[in-house]
Each structure stands twice: as C-alpha cells, then as structure tokens.
Amino acid sequence: MKIQSSKDFKLQREVEYGTPEQNQAVREIVAGIKQEGDAALLRYTERFDGVALTPAQLRVTPEELEDAYSRVEESFVTAIRAAAGNIRAFHARQKRNSWMDLQPDGTILGQIIRPLKRVGVYVPGGKAAYPSSVLMNVIPAQIAGVPEIVMVTPPSTGGREGIDPYILVAAAEAGVHEIYRIGGAQAVAALAFGTESIVPVDKICGPGNIFVALAKREVYGAVDIDSIAGPSEIVVLADDTAEAAYIAADLLSQAEHDEMASAILVTPSQRLAEAVAAEVERQLQALPREPIARASVENYGAIIVVDSLAEGISVVNRLAPEHLEIVAVDPMGLAGAIENAGAIFLGPYSSEPVGDYFAGPNHIIPTNGTARFSSPVDVDDFIKKSSLIYYSKEALLRDGAAIMELARREGLEGHARAIELRLMNEAKGGDANGQH
Hints:
This protein has 436 residues and is of the alpha/beta class. Helices cover 44% and strands 15% of the residues. The protein contains 16 helices and 14 strands. The chain has helices at 20-36, 38-49, 62-69, 74-92, 131-144, 165-174, 184-193, 210-219, 244-255, 270-284, 290-300, 309-319, 331-335, 352-357, 393-409, 413-428; strands at 3-5, 99-102, 108-115, 118-122, 148-152, 178-180, 203-205, 224-225, 233-238, 262-267, 302-305, 323-327, 343-346, 383-390. The strands form three sheets. Strands 1-11-10-9-12-13 form a six-stranded parallel β-sheet, with helices on both faces. Strands 6-5-4-7-8 form a five-stranded parallel β-sheet, with helices on both faces. Helix 8 links the parallel strand 7 and strand 8 (224-225).
C-alpha cells in the first residue's frame, strides 16, 4: 500500500451512474417489464442468467426452503440464529410509537406511525452470496411491522444447483416465505411495477451490481428505495499502540469485497504505517480473493501519515467513511470528535466483521461519503408518518387572523377565505349556512 502524507493524499470518490449504454439497457429492461410482465421477466432471466423458467417456477417452494437446511452445516444454522437474535434485539430499541398531544384549548396534535405494507428485498449473487444481508434488510422491516416482505435473488447464486442454500436458510430463519428466483434490473422492475406473478411493492432494499443500482434509480418515485450503494469502504484511525497484523487484516476484510473497495489507514505513526504496509503484502499472498483485494488496495487503498490524531480526525471527517475503526489508547474519547461515519468500531477487538455479521447494528451503511448526511438502515426506513391535526373552535378563533395574514402574504386568497368564512360564521353565532 502507498504511504503518503495527508497533504499529498487526494480523495478518490466517484459516484457511479453507469455508462450511457448501461443506462439505456436498464431503461429498456424496465420498460419491457412494465409492458409485458412475466413474458419479459422470463426472457431477461434466460438471457442474463442462463436459466429458462416457466411462470410457475419463478417462486421458491416451501419444499426448497426445507431442503436448503440439509445442504448447509448445522454450525451455520446456529450462527445465523445467534446473529438474528442480536440484530433483532438491537433494532427493537429503534421502534417508535404514534403520539398525540392534547392541549388545554382542546386542540389535538400528533403523529401516526404506520409500517409500509409491502417491501421487496434484493439479495445479490455474482462474486459472492450474502446471507447476512437477508437478516439486515428483513429484520428491521419486521420490527417496523411490515406485513408483507418479499425477497428476490438471481436463480444461479449457488451455481448450477440454483439459489445458494445459505441464502434460503437465512431467509427462512428471518421468516421470509415469498421468494422469487429473479435478479438484475428485471427483478427490480418486477418488484416496482408488478407482473402477473409478482405483486408490486412499496419499497425496494438491498445491494446489487451496477444494473441493479441503475434500475433502483430508474424506478425511484414509483416506489421508494433504500439507497444507491457504492463500493465498500473502511478507514482505520490508529496510534502507535495498534497491532499491525490486526490493522492489515481489517483493511483486507473490506478490500476483498470488490476491486473498487477502499481501504485506508490514517495514523500519526510512521512505524505503524510501514509495518501495516508490509503486513498487507504478506497477508495478501495467502488470501483466497487475492486478485480482487490486491486491485482494491493498489487502486483505492492508502496509508495516510498525519502529524497528530487531531489531524487524523479531520481527515476521517473529510472521508466520511462507511466503516471507521478507532484503534488507539482512548478510542472512546476520540469517538466524540467523529462527525461523519456510518459505523464506528472502537478498540482492537471490535473488528469490522463483528458488525458485518453478528453484533446487532445494521451493516447496510452509507457509502461514497454520504455518511455526511445519511444513516445506516434502521426501523425508520420501513415506516411512514402521518401528521394529525384536530383544531378546536377556540384555537381557530385565536389563531385565525395570523393564518389569514400568512396566506395573503403568499397571494393565496382562497386559503385565507377558508379561514375567514369560519370566523365570520362564528361571529354571527350560526352554522356554515348562516343559520342560528
């Protein structure tokens, strides 16, 4: 990895909106699904996934879900259940309730919170299958009270054998029973607009490749989406007390995700910088996904040497990373100065994979510097809010003149007259028709 000063470091952040050809392809796919429904869905599935299906074969059967358990290790089932318990307990603390405020004049103001009715979860295939992402999307939606959760995943996530059994077991453990073997932009379009076989959803969540990301962007407005996620990121802020081998391993844990993933160490210690650079190279040689991780650290990785931890914090806040590890003498004390980070891991034993899989906080976290203004997925992502307003007569008589003043200053006389009519009628002591 390159060692450089903070003055020499150039932030490389690109929001990928796809090539014109990719965007056009996605628009055509989305239009095809809207116009032809199942026929287009099956055609695109055969073209892009190499799997020919009939409409009856789109949905995963209960027997397939049950059979998936026989294809995974018991240790995996135990682990996924423990992780699900932690994730459920963490997100349960985020749940909000509706509220109402009865004021002395009889006015009632409040907020009604309702869950979304139907949510679609996209689980990717491709370079790796991610059963943990099933839990991170589904469990917050369940806690929010979403009654219908549907999952889609490409039909060949498990190679020739079809859907990866670990994904199916994770879905079953999370309580998802409506699953379709579709992927790519066509799956996103099917969730958004529906087909003969698939009822449309209100929101689509979950990561995917560039075609999935562009499709989510294309359908946004017809449905809600979680975000358009970029490549994974990790920044480690460390002082001289940090263990170089641990830091290198944590950097590579993100670099192995994707050739465009970003892994950065920020430290005031030249000694640690050199030790971590050597450790990264040593550990790379034994990493199964070495080509992917090497491309990541060579193109998007860096070791930034700063003059002090205070300067390091400034660099971190500018990077606004998805994942931030603080490995220093007083990590808790430093955490208070962090303004921009999706998830903050404190101390030498809070390795990023602890949060990715098991601790409980959500691992779907803002990327591409969007931690400056956005947050990890949580229960609030699956609710909607309605304001409640019950104005009493006493309150309207008191506030009516002010309301009319504001309306007329905006040139909206109709708004003002809707209030004025009531005030005049009350002054006469009659009803809206002028009767007493």
